[in-house]
Amino acid sequence: MSASKISVTGLRKSFGSNEVLKGLDVEIAEGEVVCVIGPSGSGKSTFLRCLNKLDELSGGTVIVDGFNVSDKTVNLNEVRQHIGMVFQHFNLFPHMTVLQNIMLAPVELKKQSPADARATALKLLDRVGLADKATARPAQLSGGQKQRVAIARSLAVNPDIMLFDEATSALDPEMVGEVLQVIRDLAAEGMTMVVVTHEMGFAREVADRVIFMADGLIVEEGTPAELFGNPQQARTQDFLSKVL
Amino acid sequence: MNIFRAGKLAVAATALLGLAGGFVGVSAAAASQPAPPQTTVTGETYVIGTDTTFAPFEYRENGELTGIDMDLIRDIAANQGFTVEIKSLGFDAALQALQSNQVDGVIAGMSITDERELIFDFSDPYFDSGVQMAVAEDNTEITGYADLAGETVVAKRGSEGETFANSIKDEYDFTVKALADSATMYDDVKAGNSVAVFDDYPVLAYGINQNNGLKSVTEKEQGSSYGFAVNKGQNPELLAAFNTGLAELKDSGEYQAILDTYLEQPAPAAASGFFGLLGDSLPALMKGLGLTLLATGLSILIALVLGVLFGFFKVSESRILRGIAGVYVSIFRGTPLLVQAFFFYFGLPQLTGQSIDVLTAGVLTLSLNAGAYMTEIVRGGIQSIDPGQTEAGRSLGLGYVTTMRRVVLPQAVKIMTPSFINQFVMTLKDTSLLAVIGFAELTYQGQQIYAANFRTGETLLIVAALYFIVINLLTMLSNKLDKRFNK
């Protein structure tokens, strides 16, 4: 338990009378890369959004990086600075330049002076291969470029954990690779990551562990070799037979 | 009849805004507190209410109030050593203001009647009036009451003329229609909507002399006398000073001189052309325009603050805040602006016993009204921004306020700006409604001018052109600023 970066116990979530998560238990160790797969509506994204409390929990306990997220008195703004999140639809701020998008949080949170934030932002842009787009507006970028900027923006607050919510689902196929490459690099650097994805090949390649979810429950989990090579549950076999 | 009408207005306004009958009782008690004992008028300043235009008793010439009533009250004040501040409110509004102690006295060519003596104290009569009938200049068919069978005549609402016309309408078989002021009555007759008008003879005589297009066809009917009024039991020293002053002016011959100025030797009507009218009326209209812009500017600023505040209430997670904003918006969107204006100017002072000046009441009305619409604009603007924007900001660890300020609002303001400009224009036009409570803005000034010169169409054309020019200039400016700052 002591090595757990993320510890989820009995997590439940309902939207009205619709129960989306029906009691999840997950432990994720520091530096571990966990891919979450499963059919649409299985609760993958909701699970991810409960980790940084973008969605309110209905029950259970979530402890992230030592913070009890399910405790109502915890300072969420502080917790969230330890957790980067990347969205399916990028959610870049359209009224700011790429550089301003990345600098906003470090400067507003007084983590860095504007000059330092700028230097960090340029370094991050270089890391995602977009050093020449610093002054561009989000509208001038391709989907893949937007998502790489969004990743750089999340990294700017220096998080310990990164959450990816179907980060490549809204991209044209030829741009998926460039984004996956950035995620792959992060994994190699030892970042703790939870990746909700439909890219089975990527999950198999990068994940330390794969979780298969269906109907608000974890049906099966294991190493990529176990889960993709020898799924035990009929539900998992059925899903994999359709997507592989 | 006038008393009942005037009283009803405030009660109706009060009731309309959902205040219980019990409040009215409380307010009546509060409004009729005895005035502090006062024995002398020397050095005092009294606020005197009057009609907007009741030529030749009160009207505007080059923007200045003049007429028999005005000369009389000013000369009496000078004679008795007090000063007067004249408020040109309109007849109903002046009586209303007197009842709510917004003014100390009223001189408005007001007939002394038994009903009015129940609620006001009157001075000695200062003028003996009477009702006369007039028809269009080219009308040769109507020469007496007997020719009115089956026709419609017009009279001023609540006036002696109306009472007289009603008293003979059955005998001569005609219908009486009531309008609010002389100028519109004369226009009604010229337009052929009514065949004749019944009006006070000095007013009619003055209008005919000003080429209003009418001619009188009957002798003056013996009518009532005009008196100066104070609220019942209030300002007795002012009433006494008026009587003393009036007597002294009569003795000195000054009184007759004033009457002669307006009745015996009426100023010859200078039938100036359109540009003459434009030149004559522009100074007063510009003064009105200034007040229109002042009221608009103040109201929009306050409305903006209210709109942002309640707009945030509306998108907040707190049910209570959303409820407060909801009630505010539904009250001010759910009642007519005119009723709100009457309520704030006449109703509120009766409820609180605290008088309120017309600019404050006007700005209060407009800003609360526009604020309700602004609230909806702000709410709509914020809600039009993709929730993903807020999620992105919050997931970076930014607080609600910072996310709003740096992420949501800059985008929302861009979306709201055209609606803001639209509301600005609406509010500017809505200021014209404040003419009814005697706020001397552009429309009011226009009414004053055509009430005195009877050139309704041309005057309104100038007023409309001024609104048009100013609104379009401001809209162009706003759009330029919008383009510049909201790229």
UniProtKB/TrEMBL annotation, chain A:
Q: Does the keyword Transmembrane apply?
A: no
Gene3D superfamilies from the UniProt entry: P-loop containing nucleotide triphosphate hydrolases
| Gene Ontology molecular function | ATP binding; ATP hydrolysis activity; ATPase-coupled polar amino acid-transporter activity
EC main class here is translocase
Q: What is its EC number?
A: 7.4.2.1
What reaction does this enzyme carry out catalytically?
a polar amino acid(out) + ATP + H2O = a polar amino acid(in) + ADP + phosphate + H(+)
Source species, domain of life: Bacteria
Ranges for domain ABC transporter: 6-240
Which keywords label this protein?
ATP-binding, Nucleotide-binding, Transport
List each coiled-coil range: none
Name of the protein in question: ABC-type polar-amino-acid transporter
- Taxonomic lineage per UniProt? Bacteria, Bacillati, Actinomycetota, Actinomycetes, Micrococcales
UniProtKB/TrEMBL annotation, chain B:
Q: Where is this protein found?
A: Cell membrane
- One biological process term in Gene Ontology: amino acid transport
Please give the Pfam families that the UniProt record associates with this protein: BPD_transp_1, SBP_bac_3
CDD domains under this entry? PBP2_GlnP (cd13619), TM_PBP2 (cd06261)
Q: Does the keyword Magnesium apply?
A: no
Instruction: Name the residues that span the membrane.
Output: 289-313, 325-346, 459-477
Q: Hey, what's the signal peptide range on this chain?
A: 1-28
Q: What terms describe the molecular function in GO for this protein?
A: ligand-gated monoatomic ion channel activity
Regarding the membrane, this protein is recorded as: Multi-pass membrane protein
**InterPro entries from the entry?**
AA_ABC_transptr_permease_3TM, ArtM/GltK/GlnP/TcyL/YhdX-like, Iontro_rcpt_C, MetI-like, MetI-like_sf, Solute-binding_3/MltF_N
What is the top-level taxon of the source organism? Bacteria
> Which keywords describe this protein according to UniProt?
Amino-acid transport, Cell membrane, Membrane, Signal, Transmembrane, Transmembrane helix, Transport
GO CC terms, sorted: ATP-binding cassette (ABC) transporter complex
**Predominant subcellular localization, coarse grouping:** membrane
What family does this chain come from, according to its entry? Belongs to the binding-protein-dependent transport system permease family.
Q: What is this protein called?
A: Transporter substrate-binding domain-containing protein
